What does this fold into?
Amino acid sequence: MEKRYSRLGETVERITLGNGLTIYAVPKPEYSKSYALFATHYGGIDMRFRLGDRWMDTPAGVAHFLEHKMFDTKDGNALQELAKGGASPNAFTGSDMTAYYFDSTERFENNLRIMLDFVSVPYFTPESVQKEQGIIGQEIRMIEDDPNWCVYTNLSRALYENHPIRATVAGTVESIAGITAETLYDCHKAFYNPSNMVLCVMGNFEPDNIFRLAEEILPKEGLGEIQRDYGKTESPNAYQERIETRMEVSTPIFLMGYKDSPRPEGKEGLRRTLTARLACDLLFGDSSPLYADLYSKGLINRNFGGDYEAIAGGAFIAVGGESKDPDAVREAILAEARRVGREGLDKERFERTRKASFGNRLRALNSFDGTCVQMAEFHFLKADYFDFPEIFDAITARDAEEYIAETIQPEKTAVSIVKPKESEPQ
It folds into this structure.
């Protein structure tokens, strides 16, 4: 099915194959480069799920571990094969999505064939799994020494009592020690089935060739919807008020979290996302009154900023940076949210910010990788990302005011701080 988005100047051809895989093809014949992203709706939070007639409980870190291992094939390594074809491949694992991607200026269809094949055909041995445990274990030890990783991880644990976002995407050295080849095969069977995946391509190609290639290579059937369990129902309020730790930093690093209700599916979920991110720009952006006040008082520096994050079963705003007095920043944010609730937003500034945000999204469409990630994310939310212009038109200042007043509340607030290590006594 071809759909023209006149506001964006984009044409998207979309098809859902008999196995359940949806493909989005955005032809760009004026470009020499083409890009492909093959994603599964599976990430770090998907540790408990139903496969057939039994519930599976898997260790933290399996999705990330599986991403690493998928490049192994019986004949060698898919990364090397793609590089031979002039492709630049990579992959990432998030909380609820794992994606494989590449771009190339030549042999695009052949490179796509390689990617579809290695992602859909797993190959693991006990020996290769054991070797990977050592490699990923080293990565985990390194990232655990990163203050920015630590402050984010502790914020997740402060906001949520039961949700698996409390566990890190990579897992721990102890959790990945429990991963076996059988674990990986089970998770691949459940989540790497075509009905749980999406293929997004942009660039210089013939869409019909992409559709035929996917039908030829991928399994003929999918498993349908995967039942998942994200733990007990969460309180609408933050689980803990604060978590502090000490590391090798010169100035305290902080993140404030504001717990939101889970994001709905469909167009309403896209609207919620755009409203929340616009609210973040209005409240925390470098042209906001709050930013100017905090900066003038020396409470923040240019690293200050906030954004909205949503996962299955949860959502929150996170804002942070560096400050000698994070508690003063926390109180200033709450006070500004109360003021917005009482007095509202400056309407001229709201319109300027809304137009700037819309313009940024329009320009971002020139980024093939970013656009494909957005298409995949909102496909899994059962929404069409390219509907964002009409949704932006409908967002009012009142929508943003209500979101800020309802979400930036003391009982919904958690604080994560990484402080400098205390000096050794002389």
The mean pLDDT is 94. The chain is about 40% helix and 20% strand. Residues 2-217 form a domain with the Cytochrome Bc1 Complex; Chain A, domain 1 fold (CATH 3.30.830.10). The longest helix spans residues 266-284.
